[in-house]
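To whoever picks this up:

The nightly regression suite flagged Extracellular solute-binding protein as changed. Nothing in the input moved, so I suspect the structure step. Input below, exactly as stored in the fixture:
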Amino acid sequence: MKTKHALAAALTLVLAGGLASCADSGGTEANGGNAATNCTNTIEKKDLPVVTMWAWYPNMELVVDNFNKASDDVQVCWTNAGQGGDEYDKFQTAITAGTGAPDVIMIEADRIPTFQVQNAIVDIAAFGYDDVKDNYSEGAWKDVSVGEGVYGVPVDGGPMGMIYRKDIFDTYGITPPTTWAEYEAAAQKVKDAGGPLFGDLGANVPAVMMALQYQNGAQPFTYDSADPEKISINLNDDASKEVLDYWDGLVEKGLVGTQDQFTPEYIAGVIGGDYATYISAAWAPGYLTGAGVGEGEDAGVWATAPLPQWDASDPTYVNWGGSAFSVTSQASNPELAAKVAFGVYADEASLTDGWQNQVIFPLNLTALNSPDFENYEVPFFGGQLANKEVYVPAANGYTGMTYTPFGAYYFDAFNEQLASINEGSVSGSEAADGLQESVVKYAEEQGFTVE
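Regenerated output under the current build:
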């Protein structure tokens, strides 16, 4: 049986791939500029210690300036080392090289276990967590935790809902479905009347299917950093199969499309009225607006409703997306770095700028439950109180998810199975069985004992 150190080494090799050969012996400049002399922002209080940070939020310069102006203990030197995968590639290179990482790094919640198992980020529970834990929900904390350890400070999330076109619903006499059974019935009604597709099963959004499986009571992974050699993988239980069989049925009946999302083709279809609904998260209005949705012929037609439930009598709230600030194991002063992670993007001015400009959906409860945020008339939804009606209740009701330390492989394997469903080569249940077999095999190859 492999030790945690060996597991981390094995995962590092797999995740880094060819990146290790790109590591520069100097580390600092090659990996995104982590030195305090490479700040994008200007540090005014030059006598204070400096913590370096990588983050890609669009308003990060404002956020860092707000923090630095208010702090008399530490200053932040911020660099945008790339968004998502680009940043992770540079971080992985720094992990492999043993140098070049920042003190604090922005990481999406589902990637935290991947870096935690490599000992690349540190548990910050002892560095101020008790002082701020009541500022966030239990679900928000669970998403950034691995077992009992806290490996990030939540900033934004993606409570899920159902975005829909009012014009299509009005034309075909549809009211927002409250259950997935009602969703299918409405889709069939629209199709029978010659209307558009009701939604879309994109093979490239496995996180949506994972969330819907959670909503149906599935527990895909059980993993605890206190016992890092073991992991429970349940990807083909009855709850998981029910979700995939349901969506397989929608595809087979021609009720939903099979276009990959986040593509020009999909956006063209959204704008053109090819889809009546978009199952997504609270960050979607920002994404859609940036993609040109709601500015032309489809202006003023969008609304949102709570996500349909598998069991309306026992509603379950789920999440898609969200990021946090983690302290890296290369931080020279982890306690000071944690002070930054806990404090940056936590002030009222930064949070307000973030949600008003659709940069974040705030998880800090002072913003999430504020009257200004709840009663905000969201422009994309024609002034609908979308936060109050849909997203705030979903965020407050969310209890968190357990992510896997090999999330990249899991999502890639899930992509392949969803593509097979869309091609008609496997059923939903068969896709679940194939996913279970693939992921278990991979986990065992990495040295995990699968239970």
